[in-house]
């Protein structure tokens, strides 16, 4: 009875969250029913219930598909490179910004680093295509310093694509990635640093003994999110930068699913790939959570 009274007394708050709950149910939970397409031979002339059951046949086809495994290789390579650089550089940049004493310079650097995040990959991809062209910005720089004799179109070289994808993504997101860390550092008690300075601790020591340990929960959370999403490479970036010359190094799982499902109409195959990726992502999420518990005295930051 007390619970019902408490619920009624907060009815205005419950009305406020009702649209969000309804959105989640309609767009996140009801579509789960469509997962059974992965176990059927579904076409556009069928309904989900009338399509023929084929069991694990779609998954057997996936295991034998060389194009799928090529997409897996590219996804893993690009994601691991992004994880290696995109996870640590925002931490370093956030600490550098936090330690700046010049307020105007700090705001300027923050603004400049944030700006690319707010542009779509259509805009940034167009810029990258122009800059990496034969007579583009980067070739002009490379030739002026003697690194190249003549310009080349770097996006036509498949061997360069992985690094192009990683570095362009880093340029777009590194500033935005510092927000959580800066917010966490702003909540650190300044007396910790004052006491450390009195004891003669250098800046590096303060960062190592105070800043990083107190940022451990945020670092752990970001690590979990990054590792669990390692099989999901940026579809927008891929569709903009991919071409017929670099496709064997630029095709990732997301673009492969997009082509198989929406372009070729093989919905069952695409759903099976998506289901497999989702299951592996959940497994990675749980494993990473267990590992990061050791960084947080046995406590989980998500579960």
What does this entry look like structurally?
- This protein has about 300 residues and is mainly α.
- The chain has one domain (about 65-295): Orthogonal Bundle (MetI-like fold).
- Helix content is about 70%, strand content about 0%.
- It has 17 helices and 2 strands.
- The chain has helices spanning about 1-10, 10-30, 55-65, 65-85, 90-100, 105-115, 120-130, 135-145, 160-175, 180-185, 190-200, 205-215, 215-230, 235-240, 245-250, 255-265, 265-290, and strands spanning about 40, 50-55.
- It has a two-stranded antiparallel sheet.
- α16 runs antiparallel to α17 (about 265-290).
- The longest helix is centred in the last third of the chain and has 26 residues, at about 265-290.
- The protein is globular.
- The mean pLDDT is about 85.
Q: How many β strands by DSSP? A: 2
Average per-residue pLDDT, rounded, comes to: 87
Which band does the percent of strand residues land in? under 5%
Distance between the termini: 30 Å
Second-tier CATH architecture: Orthogonal Bundle
Radius of gyration: 24 Å
Sequence stretches where pLDDT stays below 50 over 5 or more residues:
none
The percent range for helix content is: 55-70%
CATH fold name: MetI-like fold
Main sheet specs? 2 strands, antiparallel
* Anisotropy-based shape: globular
Write down the CATH class.
Answer: Mainly Alpha
Query: What's the assembly state of these chains?
Result: single chain
Helix-strand topology string:
HHEEHHHHHHHHHHHHHHH
Supply the CATH superfamily name: MetI-like
Organism: Enterococcus sulfureus ATCC 49903
Membrane topology: Multi-pass membrane protein
Keywords: Cell membrane, Membrane, Transmembrane, Transmembrane helix, Transport
Protein name: ABC transporter permease
């Amino acid at each position: 009875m007390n619970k019902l009274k408490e619920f009624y007394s907060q009815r205005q708050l419950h009305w406020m969250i009702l649209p969000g709950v309804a959105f989640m149910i309609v767009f996140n939970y009801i579509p789960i029913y469509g997962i059974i397409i992965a176990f059927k031979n579904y076409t556009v002339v069928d309904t989900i219930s009338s399509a023929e059951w084929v069991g694990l046949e779609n998954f057997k086809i996936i295991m034998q598909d060389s194009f799928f495994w090529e997409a897996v290789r590219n996804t893993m390579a690009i994601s691991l490179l992004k994880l290696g650089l995109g996870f640590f550089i925002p931490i370093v940049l956030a600490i550098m910004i936090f330690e700046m004493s010049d307020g105007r310079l700090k705001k300027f650097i923050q603004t400049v680093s944030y700006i690319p995040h707010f542009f779509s990959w259509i805009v940034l991809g167009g810029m990258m295509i122009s800059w990496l062209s034969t007579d583009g910005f980067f070739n002009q720089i490379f030739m002026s310093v003697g690194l190249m004799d003549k310009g080349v179109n770097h996006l036509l070289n498949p061997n360069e694509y992985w690094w192009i994808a990683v570095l362009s993504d880093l340029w777009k997101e590194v500033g935005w990635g510092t927000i959580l860390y800066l917010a966490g550092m702003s909540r650190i008690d300044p007396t910790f640093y004052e006491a450390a300075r009195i004891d003669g601790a250098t800046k590096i020591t303060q960062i190592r003994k105070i800043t990083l340990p107190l940022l451990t929960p945020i670092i752990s959370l970001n690590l979990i999110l990054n590792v669990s999403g390692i099989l999901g490479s940026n579809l927008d970036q891929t569709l903009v930068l991919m071409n017929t010359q670099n496709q064997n190094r630029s095709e990732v799982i997301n673009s492969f699913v997009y082509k198989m499902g929406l372009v070729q109409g093989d919905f069952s195959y695409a759903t099976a790939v998506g289901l497999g990726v989702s299951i592996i992502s959940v497994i990675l999420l749980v494993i990473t959570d267990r590992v990061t518990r050791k960084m947080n005295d046995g406590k989980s930051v998500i579960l």
